[in-house]
Each structure stands twice: as structure tokens, then as C-alpha cells.
Amino acid sequence: MNANTVERRTALHGFALTAALLSGLALAGCQTAPTGEFNNIDKAQGSTENISSLSAVIQRNPQDPEGYNVRGSAYGRGGQYRAALKDFDTAIQLSPNFYQAYSNRALIQRFLGNQEAALADYNRAIQINSSYDAAYIGRGNLYRKAGRTQDAFNDFQKAIQLDTTDARAYHNRGLIYQSQGQHAFAIEDFSTAISLSPDAAEPYNGRGLSYLAMNDEDNAFADFNMAVKLDGKNAEAWSNQALIYERRGDKARASKSYREAVRLDPTYQPAKDGLARTNAG
């Protein structure tokens, strides 16, 4: 599913440098955030065949809340959000303290734009289990989208203090450090996120931006290249790669990468501007 992960743009050294500063990390779990976080989830888990098999399990044991929770997650991965919401509702009706189902339902509420309902579900999940890291990460993303940066930071910090192995906690805390200009801390968090989820492109792209902000162009370029390799549909990564080519005077390669970014996202202004610059004359 193609969700736009870019929410912040920044300029460095006279060029329009762009980044997914407020992106979410795509992981195979239903507690991820709705913008960008369903991108790399295995859609086969939401396939008709998988839904059918899960429905058969529910038919054999209709009073088991876990069955509805699992099928709701599969519906979410397959983009069937209303069906997912219905299954999570049923799971919670059958088991009112099912904190995972509350957190999963919160994600779907967020995707559907029901932010207050999402917050209530995250709060309930945390009330039931104050050590549930996924709910803190999900709520942190909700706060971050709402501009409540300190609240978001506190939730990501709490998840990390709980020894989470979820890369999103580090990635998203890194984004906050980055937005505050604390690039050394941001690089450390992005690096941890990469170690936990080495196949995710977003932390490479984010770390590359912080390297560039610290004038470490070589490491920035390596990270942008890796982001493009891992996710060839990431327009921001292509644009950032192009920027390095442009800074190095290689207009041909810069133009090619900017052109790919524009092809992937025709509305992405920094890539359009970069393409105009490198094609000038």
C-alpha cells in the first residue's frame, strides 16, 4: 500500500533536502502507525486464502477472542479496515481486558481518522498492561502526528526503558532528536533501529540526513544508497541520493535520480526543483 511518509522538509547547504522526518517504520505488526507503516507488511497475510482459513478457525471456536484479534490483524494488513475494526470490537467484547486488541483497534482508528477513539484505546491498553511497549509506541506516533512532541518523546522513551526490541521506538525517538538538531543522538537511535530492523529503508534515510547535517557526506550518501536499495519506491530517498550527486557536480546522475523521485511522486516539490536545476541549460 502506498502511503506518504514525508511530513517535514528541511534545507541544508543551499539545497532543498527532504526527508521523512516524521515517518513511521514499516514493520510486520498490527500495532504500527497508519502512515507508511503498512507499506512493507506481507500482504499475503491479508489474502483471501488466509482470511478464509482464519474464518474457519473462528467458526470452530466462536468464543475465542484471539481468533478475532488475529483475523482483525490480517484484515488490517489487507487494507480491509472496517472488517478489522469489527473483529477487534468482537475480541474486546469477548475479553474486556484484551490489551493487544485495544492497541490493534487503536491503529485502525488512527488510519480511519478517529484520533480520539485511537487515543482512548491506547490509554486503555496501557491501563490494563503498563508494560506493553507496542501501545506506548502507537500512542507516541499519535501524539507526534498531533504535534505533541514531548508527549511522543516520553512514550518512545518509556518503550525503550521497557527494553523493547521494536525498531520503531528508536526510529521515532531519533526523528524527534533530528527535528531538534540533536543529530548525534539521532544517529545513535537510527543505528539501533537499523540493527533491529535491517531491511527497513526509513532509518537509513533518516540517518543519512543527520550525517549530512553534520557534514559527513560520505556516510550520508552510503545511507541514501542503502535506502534506495531497500525500498526502490521511496521518492525521498531517491531525491536525497540525487542531492549528493548534485553536490558532487554529477548532474547526469543527479538528474536521473531526481527524475525517478518525480516519477514515483509527481507532487514531490524538492525532487521537481532538483530535476529543474540539474536539467537547466
TrEMBL record:
A family per Pfam: TPR_8
UniProt xrefs under SMART domains: TPR (SM00028)
The keyword Translocase is annotated on this UniProt entry: no
SUPFAM superfamilies: Protein prenylyltransferase
UniProt GO cellular component terms: cell outer membrane
Residue ranges of TPR repeats: 65-98, 133-166, 167-200, 201-234, 235-268
InterPro entries: TPR-like_helical_dom_sf (IPR011990), TPR_2 (IPR013105), TPR_rpt (IPR019734), Ycf3 (IPR050498)
A biological process term (GO) from this entry: receptor-mediated virion attachment to host cell
UniProt keyword terms in alphabetical order: Repeat, Signal, TPR repeat
UniProt cross-references to PROSITE patterns, sorted A to Z: TPR, TPR_REGION
Keyword Cell inner membrane recorded: no
Origin superkingdom: Bacteria
Protein name (record): TPR repeat-containing protein
Protein's organism: Mesorhizobium metallidurans STM 2683
